[in-house]
Amino acid sequence: MKKRLFIVLALMITVLISFGLTAGVAADKVYINGFDAAYPPFSFVDKNGKPSGFDIDSINWIANEMGFKVKHRPTDWAAIVPSLKAKKIDLIASGMSITPERQAAVNFCNPYWQVVQLLVVKKDSKLTVDEALKPGRKIALLRGSAESKWMTKNQLKKGYKYELKFYDTTPLAIEDVTNGRADAAAVSNTALKEAVDRGLPVKKIGRYGQPDVNYGYAVRKEDNDFRNKLNEGLKRLKASAYWDELVKKWFAKK
Fold first, then answer.
1. The 3-state secondary structure of 99-150, one letter per residue
2. Confidence check: pLDDT of 235 > 50
3. Neighbouring C-alpha atoms within 13 Å toward the C-beta of 76
4. Domain membership flag for residue 15
5. Could you count the other beta carbons within 10 Å of the beta carbon of residue 240?
6. How many Å apart are CA 78 and CA 150, to the nearest integer?
7. Angle, CA of 88, 217 and 235, to the nearest 5°
8. Helix or strand holding residue 245 (H, E)
9. Which pTM does this prediction carry?
10. Residue 84 structural domain
11. Which end of the chain is more exposed for a tag (fewer CB within 10 A), N or C?
């Protein structure tokens, strides 16, 4: 009888330990943020090899405020949505434009930033927007970006004859404008500011037709609880003094 009681107690202890370990694993889940490693000031890898930028700082604050852990993983931008859906990452906080195409694939949190889409040329260029979009011109842009998809759908398919040149990072696209391999680049106003701050001889010539876009954090369709947690954290962040500090840190004129 005692032996049987001992066995039952041992089994109960084993079950309780297993439950505790499982609960601990769940509590210690680390959410992986996939980010563009070369899209300052929103996200990039700094000179010390560490994730940095406005979105990195924002998500770190939100994670601490909302009681979860986050790790940042550089991810190829053209494959970042498939990586999210395949559960290789859990979140995209990296200056991602909220577009109808992306909304069909993932869920976005509330918008946190608005950007203007511009054509950028060499500082001494005489090109106008209309001239930059003429047949034979080469437009540089980020591979898989909202700009590339919009220009393809709304201009190339409607008769424009310029050529799109795709790059793995936005800075590379802008740099090829400065060295003459592209006539213009389609980028956001924040990407232009970052290029000018780095001393690149470029300037804007105006909008090319794409509406202003909002940036938002992206999660999988089924991760509604996590999305709600991010939205609450973002709400608290924007109401805090730290939000103003971040804006000043990453977007103030140098």
1. CHHHHHHCEECCCCEEECEEEEEECCCCCCHHHHCCCCCEEEEECCCHHHHH
2. yes
3. 8
4. no
5. 13
6. 15
7. 135
8. helix 241-251
9. 0.83
10. 29-114+214-251
11. N
